Amino acid sequence: MFRDLVLRTRSIRRFHEATDIPPTTLRGFVDLARQCASTRNAQPLKYVLSTSRDMNARIFPLLSWAGYFKEWGGPEEGERPAGYVILLGDTRISQSFETDAGIAVQTILLAATESGLGGCVVGSVKRETLAAILSLPEHLKILYVMGMGTPKEKVVLEPMPPDGNVRYWRDAEQVHHVPKRGLGEVLVGAFE
Amino acid sequence: MFRDLVLRTRSIRRFHEATDIPPTTLRGFVDLARQCASTRNAQPLKYVLSTSRDMNARIFPLLSWAGYFKEWGGPEEGERPAGYVILLGDTRISQSFETDAGIAVQTILLAATESGLGGCVVGSVKRETLAAILSLPEHLKILYVMGMGTPKEKVVLEPMPPDGNVRYWRDAEQVHHVPKRGLGEVLVGAFE
Question: What ipTM was predicted for this assembly?
Answer without folding.
Answer: 0.98
